[in-house]
Design goal:
Length: 447
């Protein structure tokens, strides 16, 4: 670990919703790694599935007419689970690959239909869409773009919670120039922001009315995180394309999947002479596919999505009292096992070390997570977490905020830079009448 800049925390093992570090400390995993571990750590079923597949065939090319058995099995299963009609599946190595694949797919789709000018992509501020070139261009988190030059000149950002802004931007660009709208149903790395009531219905209708493809970035939300197999199902979105990764394998092996509605896949499949020259060395990796199948088996067999539904109000109930804490700006909860506790911006302005200090305080109390750079504590634990551990997370946040001095005097707003302490990655309904559960402060999260 000599290449790591700073004091490393080396995680060496995990069981369920807890992990252990090399120095013997045990932590509640409040972030599921980086949003990905749905079924819990230490699952022998997934290790056995990987070993068995590796003994037969670890992997092979899936280019052209080549494929492997687990790859085809997983494609069929995802197609059946998808809310899209006649779903087709394109496998990737992870979420960032899925985003870049979708951008190329959108532009190729319109080109095949004889409308190559429809190359503009519209995204939202606060949104995160991966760390590859296309995803970085799409991001609504400015810090992620800094210093990289112009990555894509045909990307437009709109206000994250304004359907009217989306309509205005599409109309200004000209609908015949816009290819797709990329949308996280619940903004993740930007601070865990659920959609305002009615927002997703409105933006879906705007896209449909203008002939713009609707791409749901569900890298975080898919496979149960919000209490349904897909967020698209929870909000009845019928996306043209769904992007998934993380929970597909619960992080046991890297894998992503782009789910494509039949209406969008059709010209790729049925246009004579068309060969879409796109793919990755590990697309549809046989062992990763076998692990994904085992992961989905666990989710379904143990009723883990139903468990998420049951824990959703528990999270809201446990975090709700924190809205009264002097240091808390707002609580965002009520969308499955996704939540955030946001610290008041004036506290962050008065102390640029608050984020790292808060993380350290939480670790002292046995909770491993991170501060998003809008000043929010990320809460996205494995689906198997106990109510006692959820209560411990809430208590640790309360005690940590108090220990850091919640009544410190606010200073004039300064630019707070927590970026060196952030891990690069991609980043509810509201359960209270307290205004601090609904307030809106732009984040500065690097991703």
């Amino acid at each position: 670990m000599s290449a790591v800049n700073g004091h490393e925390v080396v995680v060496v093992s995990g069981v369920g919703a807890r992990v252990r570090t090399e120095d013997g400390r045990e932590f509640i995993d409040a972030s599921a790694g980086l949003w990905f571990n749905s079924i819990g750590h230490g699952r022998s079923e997934l290790a056995e599935a990987a070993a068995a597949q590796m003994m037969r065939l670890a992997a092979y090319s899936n280019f052209g007419d080549l494929s492997t058995g687990p790859t085809l099995d997983l494609a069929d299963r995802l197609s059946a689970l998808s809310p899209q009609e006649d779903c087709k599946v394109f496998f990737t190595s992870g979420g960032s690959d899925a985003v870049d694949t979708a951008v190329k797919m959108v532009r190729r789709y319109w080109s095949l239909l004889g409308q190559p000018d429809r190359s503009w992509i519209v995204t939202r501020n606060r949104a995160y869409h991966g760390m590859h070139m296309a995803g970085t261009a799409l991001t609504g988190i400015p810090a992620n773009k800094d210093g990289h030059g112009e990555l894509d000149s045909r990307v437009a950002n709109v206000t994250w919670d304004s359907a009217a802004d989306l309509a205005a931007v599409i109309d200004e660009l000209g609908p015949k120039n816009v290819g797709a709208f990329f949308c996280e149903p619940v903004i993740g790395a930007g601070g865990v922001y659920p959609p305002p009531p009615g927002y997703l219905d409105e933006v879906r209708a705007i896209c449909r009315d203008r002939g713009v493809l609707f791409v749901a970035d569900e890298v975080i939300t898919a496979y149960g995180r919000v209490g349904s197999m897909f967020a698209a199902s929870r909000w009845d979105l019928d996306p043209d394309i769904i992007l998934t990764a993380k929970g597909l394998t619960s992080g046991y092996l890297p894998m992503g999947a782009v789910l494509v509605a039949g209406r969008v896949a059709e010209p790729f499949w049925n246009t004579p002479g068309v060969l879409w020259r796109h793919g990755y060395t590990y697309s549809g990796h046989a062992t990763a596919a076998a692990v994904a199948m085992a992961n989905l088996d666990v989710i379904e067999r143990e009723g883990l999505i139903e468990r998420v539904v049951g824990l959703q109000p528990v999270v809201s109930r446990l975090l709700g009292p924190l809205a009264q804490h002097e240091a808390v700006h707002e609580i965002r909860a009520g969308v499955g096992l996704l939540a955030a506790v946001q610290v008041k911006p004036e506290i962050l302005a008065g102390d640029a070390t608050f984020g790292p200090s808060m993380t350290a305080q939480l670790r002292e109390r046995g909770v491993l997570t991170r501060m998003l750079a809008d000043g929010s504590v990320q809460i996205s634990p494995p689906f198997v977490i106990s109510e006692d551990d959820l209560a411990s997370i809430a208590r640790a946040i309360d005690e940590s905020l108090t220990a850091l001095g919640s009544t410190r005097r606010a200073r004039p707003m300064l630019e707070v830079n927590l970026l060196p302490d952030q891990t690069s990655d991609e980043g509810g309904g509201f359960g209270s009448s307290d205004d601090r559960l609904l307030a809106d402060v732009p984040p500065h999260h690097m991703g």
